[in-house]
Amino acid sequence: MNRREILKSTAAIAMASSIPNWAGASVGSEFLLPGLKGEKLSAIPRFGDGRDWFFERRYGMFVHWGLYSIPRWHEQHQWRARVPRAEYVKLAGQWNPKKFNPEEWLDLMEESGMKYITITTKHHDGFCLWDTKQTGFNTMNTPYKKDVIGMLADACHKRKMPLCLYYSIADWNQPNYPNQGRHHELPPQPQDAPDWDKYMLFLKEQVRELCSNYGEIHGFWWDMNVPKFSDPTVNAMIRKLQPRAVINNRGFDDGDFGTPERDFDNAAAEAKGFDKPVEACQSVGMESWGYKKDEDYYTNRHLTASIDSYLARDANYLLNVGPTGEGLIPAESASILKKIGNWKSSVNESFHLVKSDHEIMNIPGILVTSRDQTLYVHLNRAPSGNGVKLKPVNILPVKATLLNDGKPIDCVVNLCPSDHASQQPYLRLRNLPSAEMADTVMVAKLEFDKPLDQIIQAKRTETNVELTK
């Protein structure tokens, strides 16, 4: 089975056990953003409990960090570069990220408009970023000797920032995991003692630690259930220990939400909308989710269009960065997050307290959200010119604003030569700064003086109607 097929699979998992200083931290309704409590504008059913923070925070930071940041190539360095296990584990002797400061990560998040964070506690290589008692292959047995997850949890709790934890089911280090050379697995190793039942006991105890020792967490993000093993008791344990935690669909049951990744899932990318919770994920780097020293980065246009396409359809979005071996988020990655944050700040009202409204117009490359008598037109695909025809709308708004810069938009309702057969005029947005804003997604705010179900009128008897605003 290839990577794309794996991304379409479903499942989830859970558990927790001891108590350092951050274990008492707890938060409640403060995770619900002001003005959003009790709102129901979406076709996606809410959970109706503490997990509903997920529908309000919407945009978060994904962090892939571990030993693989030292060779600076890929988060699956051991597997993709064919590094023997005996050699790879030596990287633990170099793990000493003295410049890691969780407060600086959260500063960048807040500046970039991100509202929650998901971090890799254990990736496929099996190295653990917390003080686990289940394996010695962890951050405490390195020159660093600090509990990374504990430090980040402490910082998140102080700021009331939701913290979600990623955990890889596939494990290239734990001897009981049955590595068989399947996708995202090592070939069998001489020192292994494959035993799935023992591995599941190991996994459950690790999940129990993560769900017990770090105060309240708000999500559990499974990855790589290669055997496609089903066990709903794992997620049940997470729910008991962490009732506000949302759980994704890559674990041992269907979980709470779907996880389309990068640009692999065409069905998710092209769907008009969603009837179940979704959280898309993407990395700023084109090759790696972890730190890559000579990474190629996606353009601002590609990332903003991707984020816009999911937020405008009432889904969540995680944008990933890979910190360096020293614990710093690379300057290029930070710059990208800030630029996207500036864009999102300017158009944010088009994503919140709105509903996805694809029924009003069906124009390729355009997404629509609405609130009351206001229509938000997302030019998700870069316009080919400086004008856009919003067929079949044929009523002039009382006010039209480009959210990106706050400037008024030139509007007209008139008959175009291309519509001569129908003799029907339509609303057009004119003189848009399409060239100047070619690297981002423009969002037009159109305010009408009548309900939105009345902005499309029956065919007019007169032709050459020309109304301008």
In short:
The chain is an alpha/beta fold and 469 residues long.
Core attributes:
Immunoglobulin-like; disordered N terminus; six-stranded antiparallel sheet; 11 helices; 22% helix; elongated; alpha/beta; 469 residues; 16% strand; 2 domains; TIM Barrel
Mind explaining what this structure looks like?
There is one protein chain. The chain has 469 residues and is α/β, with parallel strands linked by helices. The protein has two domains: 3-350, Alpha-Beta Barrel (TIM Barrel); 357-468, Golgi alpha-mannosidase II (Immunoglobulin-like). It contains eleven helices and 17 strands. It has helices at residues 3-7, 53-57, 77-80, 85-88, 102-111, 148-159, 196-212, 232-241, 266-270, 300-311, 331-347; strands spanning 59-63, 116-122, 163-168, 219-223, 246-247, 279-283, 316-321, 355-356, 367-371, 374-379, 388-389, 399-402, 407-408, 410-414, 426-430, 442-447, 467-468. The strands form three sheets. A seven-stranded parallel β-sheet has the order 5-4-3-2-1-7-6. A six-stranded antiparallel β-sheet has the order 8-9-10-16-12-13, with no helix packed on it. The chain has a four-stranded antiparallel β-sheet with strand order 11-15-14-17, with no helix packed on it. The longest helix is centred in the middle third of the chain and has 17 residues, at 196-212. The radius of gyration is 24 Å and the shape is elongated. The termini are far apart. The model is unreliable at 1-29 and 33-40 (pLDDT under 50).
